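Q: I'm writing up a methods section and want to include an example of the input and output format. Could you take the sequence below and give the corresponding predicted structure tokens, formatted cleanly so I can copy it straight into the document?
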Amino acid sequence: MVSVSVSSFAAEYYSRLPEGAFGRFVREPERREWAFTVERGGELVFVRRKKWDEVKGFVELYHSMGYFEEPTRWEGLTGWDLIIDVDVDLANDDSESLEEIVDQAGEAAEELREAAEVFLGRPDVVNFSGAKGFHLRWMDVPIPDTVTDIDPDTVARASRKLVQAIVDYAGEEYEDYVDLQIYQVNRLIRVVGSLNAKTLLPAVPVDDPSFEGVVDGLPEAWWEAAERVCPSLPQFLGVDR
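A: Here is the clean output for your methods example:
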């Protein structure tokens, strides 16, 4: 989409975020596995099984959905974020604009959020994925006190069954919008506020899951980085700055 050093853009963007920006949306970072991409020789390299204090120089940033006593080995599960990944698969249709993509995903996300609230209450945060969907997040969902006796895979499977029930409640037309493959003990999720390297858009939290909500939710740090490093990005979104 753009010809710009991804790492340069990322460094500019992250340098302008307020201190502690990620902490608002990540509970107990020391109990998470962390992963990130870094740019080496013009290519993005994926690095995982890191602790929070080992994270540096990243373009994209991810954390585990689970909380662990030994996070880099996924041992000793102590908590779990339940996340519904609402995604529009456009592999066979390149004609749709970003606005159309996000609107389509936003409509599905809103219906699925309403269905999920029957089971779980309001999500702690809804965020744009940075590309073609949204994440509905319930942080640190209660699991039994005897968690140390439970196979983490059991918790992951139970999460998948719950989300399948939510999809069934919403209606079969939403089946194709939800990724049910993410419920694995070693699965990662993009950190709220971090960049998606494919689009250079951040995974911003939104109140309104729509194209307008996403554009309105872009932090000033993103606009400042875009104008400094890649002025064409605001125009790509159809926004006058």
